[in-house]
Amino acid sequence: MAERHLNFDEIIDRRNTKCLKYDFAVKRGYPEDVLPLWVADMDFKTSSYVEDALVELAHQNIYGYTNTQTGDGFFDAVAGWMKRRHNWDVEERWHFKTPGVCFAIATAIKAVTKPGESVIIEQPVYYPFANIIKDTGRNLVISDLICDENDYYTMDYEDFEKKVVENKVKLFILCNPHNPVGRVWSKEELRKIGEICKKNNVVVFSDEIHFDFIWEGEHNVFQEVNESFREFTITATAASKTFNLAGLQQSNLFIPNPALLRKFRHAYNETGLDEPNIAGIAAVQAAYEHGDEWFDGVRNYIRSNIEYAFEYVKNELPGVKMNRPQGTYLIWLDFRELGLSPKDLEDLIVKKAGLWLDRGRVFGKAGEGFERINAACPKSVLKEALNRIKTGISNDG
């Protein structure tokens, strides 16, 4: 059976499909005809092997309680992908399934902290991190990344440790690779931040959901940088970014420390959730078993999109900067040289360019003056978006 869905130039009409990206503009305060490149999902059909697995499930037409067990192929599919793509040997005793990484973050917060205790993040970073911390009644601690004149980001180890100590931080949510700035953290960077956490008894939740999209360097699984890091790490992965399966609500966690796993399981059980989504299980297994050709194709296509955007920004958008992302399919555009107020920048993007992007401010104060664009779309859509920005800037001048 051959892969059928390799035409990434095809425009898929996602409107009126209950699609968060396309169908909720007016509800979110945007014009109905806005072009959306905000939320991080793809505008491509996923692997035909996933489609076939879901069709087979539909034909069975029984959707009762479901789960996975040793020998049924699910964990082997997950472990096979980790080994094949990342040379990472995972153990089944570490494995825990959750309905999404954000759900897992909220569960981890409840597992290892009490209300009022501190959780640290490095902004600008994926905005649900801060929202979940605050919504669970924990104290949000922020250590901003350092951004140099070329928009290259590094961790501020001195500030991070100072705030960990001062606030008696219990949990660190690491974004690896980093969304939105696109950094792929080196072993040395992860080792330094890990040693700070180890010394101060800080549990690390490492969100590695974008780890299949690496353009420069290699992905380093945080818990494997130093074997001792396994004792205080929860590693979150998912096929949702890799194969565009976010709506099927299935993620795979790895928690090597049995005591930490028991705490997490207890917090998970408190939610009342039990068996996983049967469609998510079928889709993820099919993707990890048979989706290599599709993934290699979509990865090469997105890489080409990112290169196109980089050259376009450099040559056609004066006053705007783009540092090539080392990882993720997200582009972090710097508009600060235009000298616009936050309101004026939003007017430029929404009213003049007719785009719905993720404005930088939502990723934290350190994101002011930036906009995040999702490059996982047909190249014609990306070209249209960049042309609209160019026109908007010209009209603004």
Describe the model:
The protein starts with 19 loop residues before the first helix and ends with a helix. The chain is globular. 40% of the residues lie in helices and 14% in strands. It has 13 helices and 15 strands. The chain folds into 2 domains: 20-47 and 292-396, Aspartate Aminotransferase, domain 1 (Alpha-Beta Complex); 63-290, Aspartate Aminotransferase, domain 2, CATH 3.40.640. Helix 3 packs across helix 10 (278-290) and helix 6 (157-167) runs parallel beside helix 7. It is an alpha/beta fold. It has a 7-stranded mixed beta sheet, sandwiched between helices. The model has no long low-confidence stretch (mean pLDDT 97).
Which architecture of the largest domain per CATH? Answer: 3-Layer(aba) Sandwich
Shape call: globular
The secondary-structure class comes to alpha/beta
Note the main sheet.
7 strands, mixed
Query: What's the end-to-end separation, in Å?
Result: 55 Å
CATH topology of the largest domain: Aspartate Aminotransferase, domain 2
Instruction: Kindly provide the name of the CATH class of the largest domain.
Output: Alpha Beta
**Which band does the percent of strand residues land in?**
5-15%
Radius of gyration: 21 Å
Widest sheet: strand ordering: 2-10-9-8-7-3-4
User: From N to C, what is the helix and strand string?
Assistant: HEHHEHEHEEEHEHEHEEHHHEEHEEEH
Instruction: Write down the domain tally.
Output: 2
Low-confidence stretches: none
Number of helices: 13
How many beta strands in the DSSP annotation? 15
Average pLDDT metric: 97
